[in-house]
Amino acid sequence: MNVVTTVDPRDGRRRDTELTETGDGRLASIVALAAQSAAWLDALGRSGRADLLHAIADAIESSRADLAAVAESETGLSRSRLDVELTRTALQFRMFADVLRDGGYLEAAIDHAAQTAIGPAPDVRRMLVPIGPVAVFGASNFPFAFSVPGGDTASALAAGCPVVVKAHPSHPLTSQAAAAAIATAVRAAGGPEEVVAIVHGQRAGLALVRHRLVRAAALTGSIGAARAIQAAIDERDDPIPFYAELSSTNPIVILPAAAAATDQIADGLFSSFTGSGGQLCTKPGLAFIPSGPAGDRLAEALRQRVVAADGVVLLNERIRDAFNDGRAALERAGARLLARPEPGSTTGFSVVPTLLEVDVSGLTAELAEECFGPLMIIVRYDGASDLVPAVAAVPPSLTGSIHATDQDDRATVRRLADTLAGRAGRIVFNGYPTGVRVSWAQHHGGPWPSTNSLHTSVGATSIRRFLRPLAWQDAPEWVLPAELRDDFQEIPRRVDGRPR
Amino acid sequence: MNVVTTVDPRDGRRRDTELTETGDGRLASIVALAAQSAAWLDALGRSGRADLLHAIADAIESSRADLAAVAESETGLSRSRLDVELTRTALQFRMFADVLRDGGYLEAAIDHAAQTAIGPAPDVRRMLVPIGPVAVFGASNFPFAFSVPGGDTASALAAGCPVVVKAHPSHPLTSQAAAAAIATAVRAAGGPEEVVAIVHGQRAGLALVRHRLVRAAALTGSIGAARAIQAAIDERDDPIPFYAELSSTNPIVILPAAAAATDQIADGLFSSFTGSGGQLCTKPGLAFIPSGPAGDRLAEALRQRVVAADGVVLLNERIRDAFNDGRAALERAGARLLARPEPGSTTGFSVVPTLLEVDVSGLTAELAEECFGPLMIIVRYDGASDLVPAVAAVPPSLTGSIHATDQDDRATVRRLADTLAGRAGRIVFNGYPTGVRVSWAQHHGGPWPSTNSLHTSVGATSIRRFLRPLAWQDAPEWVLPAELRDDFQEIPRRVDGRPR
Q1: Average pLDDT over chain A, rounded to an integer
Q2: Interface test with chain B among A87, A442, A484, A496, by most B beta carbons within 10 Å
Q3: B400: helix, coil or strand?
Q4: CB contact, 8 Å: A467 with chain B?
Q5: d(C-alpha A36, C-alpha A28), whole Å
Q6: How many angstroms separate the CA atoms of A172 and A78, rounded?
Q7: Is residue B484 a contact partner of residue B125, using CB atoms and an 8 Å limit?
């Protein structure tokens, strides 16, 4: 058995843990127990699962200090950032408790028997039911909010699906600690711990999605990881849905009048592209800034902030190397170096924030590739006529942002918004794409390569990924789920075509 | 250019049409024009598209006699069956007009800016937007309702997506005639005909799903066709969703007390497995009938109906050959022949209805394979203890049916319903799975191999296959779609987490 190792990115030191990579026999037993635990989740009902999600949120917050400490040592992310992430993680569980109590997510619909143009029609009732055990692949950059206790886990549990998480190799001990916190809450509710299980090791992750009892998979990670997982899924007899949140350049456009707010926008852009070491899937990688004096002042203000910036520790060696390679490739591809402070320290996986610049006419496909880490390219444009086609040529992203004031040209804003609508999952106005709100209306997804599907991994509707429709025809009332009986009034439903 | 041929299945005669298979250049031009027509669909708005769908329904009904005549000569289906299918087809367009006017399908949600546990959160608004041009593969067995003017086309148009249909080679002239009827309505509405286009030929179908402007594909057909289409999609740089409705055995269980209604159930089963030549994806292929006198009487009543039945003309030579091969394979695999009338005529692609029988202990995976056409296997069981595991071993299906009276054991009904819930998309009580109601709550899908996805191809929610979520953050009101503005009241929405 391969021993699982942990690395402190602040000094690069690797040490063995007491964990081993999950072998085939152990994996089969974990998945079997997870599948069995579906009955317990189902028996809890919506209200019981809502209570469970609250208890998990409380358990995570009770372990806040321990969780943040181990995550800090495995990710190099700052304690304050991890603290916010932990709060967000608890918030996600509580939001799905609200989603369960609301019940609209079931999409319950009743069509009573009726006469139609093609004759008498039976009574048909439909709602969504859990899909079964879900494989979740933890992300490197969110050790809580997109990992063991992340949104995929919270939404799958809410749906009634057991979860087996493939722990990210960058934070195995954080993953274990988070699973232990969840297990405390599950045990207190009288449930089987295996309702949220962990496996370690790449081989185990691929075996997981090949396992016949696993009914869906979710990933926040790289295109390479997604391809490997999809290839494993393609070996199955039966296809299963795979929801992958991948790569994103997140263009942000500063229109000429908006660019006059020099310091405000320079602060915002700087924070957005360097926060969390620039290791966010919504990091703005391309900032379109006008030519001319206002744009020059904004570029200079940004340059000053980057020059004065400290180095940052990246999550792992692979990400550090990919960042350095990516930066060098961008410079070779014609991006001018605007700012790159001298590294204060070179221990561990540290790098320095980097600001590059290119004229809009020189913006090639190579320069529009995501570079994960604290790097942004300023793209200098002359006007709408070169700006809009350039934005339209950037690969699709999770987000696209527009800064505009009332003095900016409305027709240009409209054209940019229409362009981004076809190429992004979320359009941000006068703000920054990082800091994704967790709420009912949120959407975190977008056309390929930002995701491989139409579905969102943040917000209330992300639960739908782990549900499937089921219809009952002329069923006796005692067979129907409570939510589909005539006299049930507690959730929003559609009855004979009308919302009730 | 290969000439497209048409075959009358009643006599097997093949003749050339004036159509040719669609070459690469013509395909590219068709898809480009289809993509351009999306702007017109968008400009129509929900209300304009609802009017268009009504106009298409009217145009199809105006061409009823011509459409039914050409379909009869290309499919061998009876005029009365085609007449009902045409009415159903018009109904589908009108239902999606209702869906558009209702507007709930947009899933419009507004979260106003707020303070949250992790700080101030922006205003986020989300709704579904059209995915873009859709490739639809027409089905052999529904020349209208699942072909050019079928539910996939109706739901995609409703969503705002242009459609390019790959016409089924069994009914090219019906496809052209249906497209002409649709084009009449589109022209009258001032639209570009290319909003619903047709291509012919297998090669064109595969090129269609490889085309970069095509954003989704839908098929009602065989697993083989689905594999070929998926392989073509896998050649793309960007994955696109593919919704395939495939193969289904549709087990139906007659519990002991219910079996006493001998003639009623014999009539129902006979109609359900022989109607439309048994060429329905919801045809019951396996009927579980109890051992003992009531079951014997039911089996005998069925046998008498089959022995007295006329031959039926199947849709094409391939389906006829597959039926004969499948029937022979089932007999070789141990199914006893109960009834197979002498063929009255052997012209064209005619076959005779066939009733086979097997003891529950002999029900193998081979016997549970779908045999498309007028064939059903009676499975004789002794009691719940052999019945339930046998039902659980049947491959997942679009439907599962249970006939039970108050005298039948409730615990058995419950166990069967729970078993089928995990293995079917629709559970039918005291009825037959054929004759799928078109309505809001309907679901037509199920676990693999009945479909390759979680999504339904019938009912109001089938529109969701052709929509993707898009979020606007802090957008000025004039940029927002009308449905996401604060004062818009005409559709069901979710505002700050509450249905309004």
Answers
A1: 97
A2: A442
A3: strand
A4: yes
A5: 12
A6: 18
A7: yes
Contact check, Cβ <8 Å, B238/A428: no
Whether residue B341 lies within 8 A of chain A, CB to CB, comes out as no
Q: What would the pLDDT profile of A377-426 be if each residue is shown by its tens digit?
A: 999 999 999 999 999 999 999 999 999 999 999 999 999 999 999 999 99
- The reported pLDDT for the residue numbered A346 is 77
Nearest to A475 by CA among B70, B174, B441, B379: B441
Query: pLDDT class for B126, splitting at 50, 70, 90?
Result: very high
Q: Taking Cα atoms as reference points, which of B295, B362, B374 lies closest to residue B335?
A: B362
**Alpha carbon distance, N-terminus to C-terminus of chain B:** 57
- Residues B229 and A312: their CA atoms lie apart, in Å, by 47
Concerning whether B72 is annotated as a catalytic residue, the answer is no
Kindly report, residue by residue over B391-404, the tens digit of the pLDDT.
999 999 999 999 99
* CA–CA dist B192, B133 (Å, integer): 14
pLDDT in tens, B6-32: 999 999 999 999 999 999 999 999 999
Q: How many other CB atoms sit within 10 Å of the CB of residue B150?
A: 29
Number of H-type helices and E-type strands within chain B: 13, 23
Q: Which residue in B126, B423, B464 has the most chain A C-beta atoms within 10 A of its own C-beta, making it the best mutation to test that interface?
A: B126
Distance CA A96, CA A85 (A): 17
Closest among B157, B144, B171 to B85, alpha carbons compared:
B144
B452 touches chain A (CB under 8 A): yes
Could you tell me if A439 and B393 are in contact, meaning their C-beta atoms sit under 8 angstroms apart?
no
| Per-residue confidence band for A143, with pLDDT thresholds at 50, 70 and 90 | very high
pTM of this prediction? 0.97
B125 touches chain A (CB under 8 A): yes
Cis status, amide bond into A449, omega within 30 of 0: yes
A212 at the B interface (CB within 8 A)? no
- Chain A contacts of B448, Cβ < 8 Å? 237-239
A261-285 residues labelled b (16+ CB within 10 A) or e (exposed): bbeebbebbbebbbbbbbbbbbbbb
- Nearest CB partner across the interface for B239, out of A109, A431, A448: A448
Q: Which of residues 220-249 of A touch B (CB under 8 A)?
A: 237-239, 241
The residue of chain B with its CA nearest to that of A100 is: B497
Q: Are A416 and A388 in contact (CB under 8 A)?
A: yes
Active site residues of A: 245, 281
User: Which among B104, B431, B494 has CB closest to A122?
Assistant: B431
Query: Does residue A73 belong to the interface with chain B, where contact is any CB pair within 8 Å?
Result: no
Q: How far apart are CA A365 and CA A356, in angstroms?
A: 15
Burial (CB count <10 Å: 0-12, 13-18, 19+), residue B326 = middle
A441 vs B125, B439, B476: nearest CB:
B125
Q: Give B274→chain A minimum CA distance, Å.
A: 19
One of B245, B357, B370, B371 is an active-site residue; which one? B245
Average pLDDT over residues A241-262: 97
Instruction: Report yes or no: A134 at the B interface, CB cutoff 8 Å.
Output: no
Question: In the block, which residue shows the tokens 């320079």?
Answer: A266
Please answer whether residues A372 and A319 qualify as being in contact, where contact means their C-beta atoms are separated by less than 8 angstroms.
yes
Long-range CB contacts (< 8 A, 24+ apart) of B201-205?
B201/B2, B201/B4, B201/B21, B201/B22, B201/B169, B202/B169, B203/B21, B204/B21, B204/B22, B204/B23, B204/B27, B204/B166, B205/B135, B205/B137, B205/B166, B205/B229
Which residues on A lie below 8 Å from B116 (Cβ)?
A: 91, 437-439
pLDDT for A347: 86
Report the alpha-carbon distance of residue A300 to residue A313 in Å, rounded: 25
User: For position A281, what pLDDT does the model report?
Assistant: 96
Determine which helix (DSSP H) or strand (DSSP E) holds B242, and give its type and residue range. strand B242-245
Q: In terms of Cα–Cα distance, which of A101, A192, A175, A176 is closest to A140?
A: A175
Contact assignment for B452 to A239 by CB distance below 8 Å: yes
